[in-house]
Design brief:
single chain; alpha/beta; 7-stranded mixed sheet; Rossmann fold; 9 helices; globular
Length: 240
Amino acid sequence: MDKKQKQQEIVDMFDNIASTYDLANRVLSMGIDIKWRRRACQKAYDILGSKNLEQITDVACGTGDLLLFWKEYAKKMGISVDRYLGVDPSVGMLEVAKGKVDFASFLEGKAQELPVEDESTELISISYGIRNVVDRVEALEEFYRALKPGGIVVILEFTKQDRSGVVDRVVDFGMKNVLPRVGGLISKNYAAYKYLPDSIEGFLTTQMLEDELKSVGFEIAHTQSFTLGISTLLIAQKRA
């Protein structure tokens, strides 16, 4: 299977689970993913340091969850944002997003081919989506192109971990055995939620993702691990 076919299979999978995606996320994470997203937004705004933003672009925006938190924390921190944009290749996900996020614009598009102008956005985010991008380095190059000088990319992801302790084994068991069964029950699509732990296992370590960001010109501004290393926050900045 070539890269284009593989990418289309992933997009089709997300189309199929779009209607139950939010419910499955909340159940499987027991709501803790909300905490991860909120911490990411607050830290990103702190690093960016600006009180007036022209655009925030959420890539692989899915059902629009992170856009809600970007707006919530902009209001809390006294930051004005002219435009919120969500980009995703899954039409099914975008339809759900449009129904719950009424302040943002949405465009169908891939991370590797962002439908935005050069240096047009101060902040690009991608939450739990970068591992689903087949041509990942191309996507990071696109992020760099689209960001204004001094702008940041915010990545939340399940990075691969070297697990050896008792707690680590419990986490692994849950990811590989409980998650596919519960997610499959909610979505009626076992294969989609079997894909999730498999995609994490085959993904990069945090250090490797940092290296890829540096290779396209970014400087690492912040790295943080959440909840026994299940989730990782990476914030990288384009040179001013």
